[in-house]
Amino acid sequence: MEDLQELTIIERPVRRSLKTPEEIERLTVDEDLSDIERAVYLLSAGQDIQGTSVIANLPFLMRQNPAETLRRVLPKVREALLVAGVEMQLTAAVSFLTILQEESVSVHTYAHSFLQVILLHLEHRDAGVSNAWLETLLSVIEVLPKETLRHEILNPLVSKAQLSQTVQSRLVSCKILGKLTNKFDAHAIKREILPLVKSLCQDVEYEVRSCMCRQLENIAQGIGTELTKSVVLPELIELSRDEGSSVRLAAFETLVNLLDIFDTDDRSQTILPLVKSFCEKSFKADESILISLSFHLGKLCHGLYGIFTPDQHLRFLEFYKKLCTLGLQQENGHNENQIPPQILEQEKKYISVRKNCAYNFPAMIVFVDPKNFHMELYSTFFCLCHDPEVPVRYTIAICFHEVSKLLNSGVYLIHKELITLLQDESLEVLDALIDHLPEILELMSTGGESSVQENKLSSLPDLIPALTAAEQRAAASLKWRTHEKLLQKYACLPHVISSDQIYYRFLQRMFTVMMTNNVLPVQKAASRTLCIFLRYNRKQEQRHEVIQKLIEQLGQGKSYWNRLRFLDTCEFIIEIFSKSFFCKYFFLPAIELTHDPVANVRMKLCYLLPKVKSTLKIPADKHLLQQLEMCVRKLLCQEKDKDVLAIVKRTVLELDRMEMSMDAFQKKFYEKDLLDQEKEREELLLLEMEQLEKEKQQSDGRPMSDKAFEKKRRDTKTPTTLPKSIPVAVPGPSSATSSTSKEIKKSKLIRSQSFNNQAFHAKYGNLDKCASKSSTATYTPSVSGLGKTSVISLTDDSFRTRNASNAPSSFSANSSLPSTSRVTGNSVDPKSSGSKDTQPRKATLKSRKSNP
Which residue intervals are annotated with compositional bias (Basic residues) in the record (predicted)? Predict the structure, then answer.
C-alpha cells in the first residue's frame, strides 16, 4: 500500500503539467489562414516549437510561393534566429541548404536573401550550430559567382583570420580558404589567399595550425605544381616538425596525399627523409600517430616505390611486419577486469593498427612483388588470418580476393588461410569473405600453370567440408542475411568443383534448407542455387532424381508452404533453363496447382501464369496452350475466393495481350529466342557428353577426369552453330547407341567438349544471358498424339523405382520423368489436387503398364 501511495504522489505532477484551456487556446491557429499567413503568425506570436516547425517547412513554402515567402516569411525567420535556441538554429541551417539544393530560387536571389543570414551565425557560441552553418556555407560557395565570393566572403575573411579574432573564427576561416581555392585562378590565389594561408599556418594555437594544414591539399590542387613546391611544401616541412602531435600528424597525412604532385627529386630528397624520421619516432610518440601511419603505409610505399634503396626497402618492410604484430607479444590471458583501463585503451589502439595493416596488405604485396610473397609476407599473412581480434580477421577477409588476384599462379600458397577464414568462429569474418567467394574459388581452380592446374582444388581436400560447415554455421545463427548470401554464392560451385561433389555434398542440403528453413529469402536463395546445380549436373540419373524430388516433395507436398516454394522454383527454372525443358518437365505440375485447396497457392500461380505461357511455342505446344486455357477457364468459373478471383481476372487480361512465340525465329523475339536456343543446345550437349564419355571409358578402359574435361572445355571455343546432324529429340541411351560411325562419335565428342565456361556468367547470376550466338537445332517436348512418346503421368510410380533396372535413366522419351504428354481425360478434384493420393497413382500405373 505504501508503494501504491508513492505512485499516486508521482502521478500528481503529471496531471498538473497537462495544458490548461487557456494554453490550448493560445496554441490554436485559425484553420482559414493560408500557409504564408499561418507561418507569419506562428513566427510572430507562437512558441519556439511552432517556430521551429515553420522553419523546417520553409523549403515547402519556397516551392509553393517563393515571392511571398521571401517578402513576408523570411524577415520573420531572421528575427526569430537572433534569439533562437540550438534546435531552431540547426533546423534553419538544414532548411537553407535544402532550398539551395532544390534550386527553388536563382543563385543571385539566394545570395541576396540567405547569404547574410548564414554568415551572421557562422560564429555561434555552440560548436554544433557553428559547424552546421559552416557546412551550408561551403555548399553555397560551390555555386556563387566569383565577384560575390570576393566581396561577400573573401574580403571580410581578411579580418576574420587575424590573431585578434577568436579561435572559432580562425578555424572557420581555415575551412573557407580551403574551399575558395577551387573558385579562383592561381594568380588570384597567390595574391589574395596565400598570405592568409601562411599566417594561419603560423598561428599560435595548435588547433588552427592543424586545421590549416589539412586544407593545404585543396590549396595545392588549386595553385598547381610550381606554387605547391615553392609555397606549400616549405610550410608542410615546417609543420611536420611542429611541437603539437596533431599538427605533425596532419602534415604527414597531407604529404602522403600530395605525393603524386611532387617529382622524383622532391620525393627522394625532401619527403623520404621526413617519412623515415616520422616512422622512427612513431613508436615513441602517441599511439594515434601509429594508427594514422599504419593506415597510410600502403599509399606511402606505392608513392615512394622506385626511389627506395634496397636497404630502405627492407627497413620499410620490416617496419610493416612489426606493425602487423604490434600488441600480440603482450597477450597474457588475464581477465579484462584485472587489466588497468590505460592498458585496455592501448590495446584497442594496437588492434586498430593491425586492422589498418590488414587493409594495406594487397599494397604491400605489390611493394615486395608477388613472386617474393612466400618468402617475405606469407608469415605475416598467416598472423593476420589467425589474429585473436575479429576486426583484424574481418579486414583481411575483405582483402582476400585482392590478395588472390595479385598472387596469380601462387594463389595455392594461401589455400590453408582460405580454409581458416571459412572456419572462423565469427560470422562477421565469414560474411566478409563470401562477398567475393566466387572470384576466390575460381582463381584457385584456374590460376597457375597448366601443368599444375588440374590439381589446384584436388590438393585442398578440406575445402568442401569447410564450405558445408560454414553453411551449417550460418544456418544455425540468427543472421539469416549471411546465410542467404552464402547460398547465393554457392551458385559458383559448378564452375570450380565436380558435378558429383556438388550432388553428394551440397544438393541434398539445398533441399533441406528449402523445406525446413523458416526464412523466405533463404529458401528462395537455396531454390535458385539448386536450379543452377541441376542446370550444370552432368549425369542424367542424378538430374532425374532431382526433378523427381522437386515435383513429389515440393509440387505435390502436403504442406502448402512447400507448394509455394515449388512455384518459386518454377520461376527460376524458366529463368535458367530453356523453354523446352520447362515445358517437358514442369509445365503440367505447375498448372495442376490451379486446383490447389489453399488460396495462397492458387494466387501465386496466377501471378506466375504469364511467365508460364511465355515458355510455349506455337504450333508445337498448341496442346499445352489448350490445357493452360482450360485451367484458367476453370478458375474463372469455379473460384470462390474473391481475392484470387480478382487476380485471375487481371491475369486473363494480361494473358490475352501476350503475343505467342513461334517455333521459327521472329524479329520481335529474336534475342530471347537466340538465348533460349543456346540454353537448349547446352542441355543437348550435356546429354551427349555423358553418353560419349561412357563410350570413351569403355574404349579406353579408364574414365575421363572431371578436371581434365573442364580444361578441354575451357581451351575450346564455343561454336556459333551446330551441325544439322544433332537429333531433334533429347538423346537417351537408345539414341546414343544408334550411331554407326566412329568418326561421327568423335566429332560429337569434340563438339560436346566445346561447351565452354562462357555459358557460366562471371557474376553467376544472370545465367539466361550466357551466350552470344546459338545454333538452330532444337528439341521439342513430347506431345500426346503428335509423336511416338508413350503417355506418362506426373504421378508415375516409376519415380520410386528409378534404380530397378540397370539401364541409366535419362531425359529421353522413355524416361519415367513427367513430360508434356498427358492423358487429358482424367478429371482432377480441386480439393485433392497436389496431395499424394494413392488411387490416381494406381490407375496411372495400370495405364502405363498396358502401354507397350
Answer: 843-852
Paired strand residues for 662 = 618
| Cα separation, 149 vs 425, whole angstroms | 57
> Among all chains, which residue has been given the C-alpha cell 593498427?
353
Q: Residue 834, exposed/middle/buried by CB under 10 A (0-12, 13-18, 19+)?
A: buried
Q: Check if the beta carbon of residue 254 is closer than 8 Å to that of residue 216.
A: yes
Residues 6+ apart with CB under 8 A from 588: 627, 794, 818, 820, 822
Mean pLDDT, each 10-residue run in order, the chain (852 residues) = 58 56 69 84 84 93 92 92 92 94 91 92 89 94 90 88 88 92 85 90 93 92 86 91 89 90 86 85 73 91 87 91 86 59 86 95 94 94 96 96 92 93 95 94 72 50 91 93 96 90 93 93 96 91 92 93 95 93 93 93 94 89 91 90 92 88 64 80 82 75 53 43 33 38 44 40 39 36 35 35 37 44 38 38 35 36
- Looking up cell 542455387 gives 529
Query: What is the C-alpha to C-alpha distance for residues 260 and 228, in angstroms, rounded to an integer?
Result: 12
Confirm if 332 and 296 have CB atoms less than 8 A apart: no
Instruction: Confirm if 471 and 482 have CB atoms less than 8 A apart.
Output: no
Whole-angstrom distance, CA of residue 406 vs CA of residue 368:
11
- Euclidean distance between CA atoms 94 and 44, whole angstroms: 21
pTM, rounded to two decimals: 0.73
Give Rg (Cα) of the chain. Answer: 37
Phi, psi of 618 (to 5 degrees): -100, 135
The CA-atom distances, in angstroms, between 47 and each of 3, 20, 88, 320, 659 are 38, 15, 11, 60, 64
DSSP category for residue 829: -
Reduce the DSSP state of residue 37 to 3 states and report it. Answer: helix
| pLDDT recorded at residue 698 | 74
Q: What is the pLDDT of residue 540?
A: 86
The C-alpha cell at 656 is: 490475352
pLDDT for the residue 456: 46
CA distance linking residue 502 with residue 493, whole number of Å:
7
In this structure, what C-alpha cell is assigned to residue 478?
540468427
Torsion of CA 735, 736, 738, 744, to 10 degrees: 130
- Burial of residue 770 (CB within 10 Å: 0-12, 13-18, 19+) is middle
Residue 815's alpha-carbon distances to 188, 434, 802, in angstroms, are 84, 39, 10
Residue 494 near residue 457 (C-beta atoms within 8 A) = no
SS3 391: helix
Say how far apart CA 176 and CA 137 lie, in whole Å: 8
C-alpha grid cell, residue 544: 532425374
Q: Match 529458401 to its residue by C-alpha cell.
A: 523
> How far is the C-alpha of 487 from the C-alpha of 214, rounded, in Å?
45
The answer to whether the peptide bond before residue 619 is cis (omega within 30 degrees of 0) is yes
Which residues have CB under 8 Å from 645's CB, separation 6+?
A: 635, 636, 639
In the numeric block, the cell 520553409 is attached to 58
> What is the spatial distance between Cα 200 and Cα 194, in angstroms, rounded to a whole number?
10
- The separation between the first and the last C-alpha atoms of the chain, rounded to the nearest angstrom, is 91
Residues 6+ apart with CB under 8 A from 63: 102, 104
